[in-house]
Amino acid sequence: MDGTSAMEHQTMSSMPTSTIANVPVLIHEMTHQWFGDNVTFAHWNDLWLAEGFAEYSDALSQEMVPAVGTPASAATRRTSYKNSAISLSSQSAWIPNNSSTTSDLIWNSNYGSTVYKRGAMIVSMLRTMCGDSIFFSTLTKYQTELAGKSATADTLRNYFNRALGRDISVFFDDYVGGSDTASTIKGGIGSPVNTVNWNAPTTFGQSGKRLVISMGTQTKTAGSNVAYFRGPVQIHVKGALPANDTTITIFDWGGGNLSYAGNGISIPVAGNKLTFDLSFVPTTVLYDDSSRTMSRGTGASPFTGTTKLTTLEGYVWLGTTNTVWGTASNWTGNLVAPSGGDVTIATTATNHPVLPSGNTTVGPLSILAGKILYLNGNTLTINNSVRYTGTISGSSTSNIVIADKAATLNFDQTSSATRSLNTLTLNTGASATIGTGLLEIYGGLSLPVKSTLTVKSANMLLH
Ligand SMILES: [Zn+2]
User: Fold this and answer.
1) How many CA atoms lie within 13 A of 236 on its CB side?
2) Ligand 1 centroid to 110 CA: how many Å?
3) What is the pLDDT of residue 197?
4) Ligand 1 centroid distance, CA of 271 (Å)
5) Residue 32 Cα, ligand 1 centroid: separation in angstroms?
6) Closest among 404, 401, 437, 402 to 418, alpha carbons compared
7) Cα(7) to centroid(ligand 1), Å
8) What pLDDT does 3 receive?
9) CA distances (Å), 344 to each of 86, 126, 199, 278, in order?
10) How much is the average pLDDT of 89-118?
11) Percent of all residues in the chain with a pLDDT value above 90, rounded to a whole number
12) What is the pLDDT of residue 222?
């Protein structure tokens, strides 16, 4: 053992006297008791499953253990991983077969750095997109169920896919690069440079507290072998007061499809727009200034990478012309919400919207106070949340499908007809709440496994 290194052997960490008191080295080697020893990488290709977690644990310990560091020092540590990972432009964290068969190539080339630093950032990005609850519980399960066994990148991915109820293979393809089934590397080299457009419209009674986000351009660092990096994007939003401070995480699937992320990952929302209801008026938006992802914004650090676009609005129904959903002039910017888009029915709407025949799919749906969405005997599929206190007017021939979590449905209580549905269907894993007032169902209620329907004060009537 030379004077500066340390080495993990199964159940025994070897450290010279010069590093035994070096906390980052100590934590790195101790982490290998789990990542490397308890669950071993099945092939050298996935050495990052040991080293990426061990390296990330240094920043994690600084964040979590006051005697070791602070959240600020943890961010500094992540920044050093991030800068190092971004600077490595010719290797992936996943070691291709032709390099993994020669041990010298692993340790005496840049693979050493990509396996450690890029590996650490992949771990950081997983935590960022999942949120702490899913991230830590999934890793606990991975360590418990695979104790004494081995894993590959695909194994880890499958654990997160199951926990999220979402397939994040594209993230593993773009940032890790290799998998059990790939004969050649799928990606994993380079990183994205993004711009994020934002606006806080002062219309529709929102007082500028509604943040609208869209992804702008993506360029890539030299050597990138990925067409479009799909993964987490984090922004830091500030207002006029010090307390006006929040971080927002989205998952960028490419092609204008975005998910709310950071506490699970929502069904992708079409149309390249997401809205966030804040408690303050945003004045500054910074791009990942605490280095939680491997993507960065444009410009110099701290990366702004964001542009305020005063023309950026959500898909907002104004009903200026008539009640027809598909009439462009009823929407801000003459843009009809695309299928799965993030829809707002404005307080200032002059006509209430009426759904067209067939099925209409929305992402998050905001029906502002006093406004009514008429189903008119058709089907509404809701992929995300329903926000605000406006109502839905149904009928005994209208249907609602809830595809994801946390939809709260308030029905128009004008008459028995307006508070009725033919069918209410929750997809597997979906959840919904019947808000105030009664709901009457004439056809059927479908609640498959793992779906949850919350009904307050017995306000549902099944005919
Ligand atoms: Zn190590």
Assistant:
1) 17
2) 15
3) 95
4) 43
5) 7
6) 437
7) 7
8) 47
9) 39, 31, 15, 15
10) 77
11) 73
12) 93
